[in-house]
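Hey,
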Amino acid sequence: METFIELGKRAKQAAGELAILQTEQKNKALFACAEALISASAELLAANKEDMEAAKKAELPETLLRHLLLNEERLKAMADALKEIAALKDPVGEVLSMSNRPNGMMVGKKRVPLGVIGIIYEARPSVTTDAFGLCFKAGNAVILRGGSDAYHTNCAIVKVLGKALEASGICGAAVQIPPAADRESVGELLQLDKYIDVLIPRGGAGLIQYVTENSKIPVIQTSVGNCHIFVDRTVNYEMALNIIENAKLQCMDACNAAESLIVHSRIAEEFLPMLYERL
């Protein structure tokens, strides 16, 4: 089994190549990756089936099973997302500001790739392609450590993406996955400060706290958030009811599902019973 050091070395080398890629090269590669996902659907769904069977045997919660599931519809959405990323403006090289100092020196801000990004997240296969696509478009190599429950699925996805990159003349090590999915692998990843330039934990408060407290690498910390809705006194009741129902019930376990509701005191007595009936 390869070591984490070898993983980091390959990522660092790939990052140097990605940093000088032209926008057209990156966009063509993203389209190639999108098409490769669809072409390899049988392989990817088979890997996901293995993860799903193990998750059911372990009696994981229904919400986690929904996150973990991969099907033809979700695969298409993942491929479409890569194409959407290709359509985004390339941030690399953008000059944000420029000023002339009194000594005649021009000083400015310019966007450049970070290098190697490590992302630690939970069992959502779609995050694997989204995270790769965004990092790649910005000229960064990425090491993806997804949840252990999706390990076979993520390995299969990364393998397909890597092959598509190589077929496009780009180093396949631009996207990699650690050689293990146990808890110890997270700890090892946090020590690769010679090879990973920044870490992004994506998940619950416990994961974010663990990564922040134990990492030797700079961490971009995300918040647990609080998605809220405010119903003002001048609101259209039917519109408000539709918005709240959609925001809470369309997918209750999504990270952007509504969590807090604030209703103006002047309409609360009339509006809240209507909302109770709707929900």
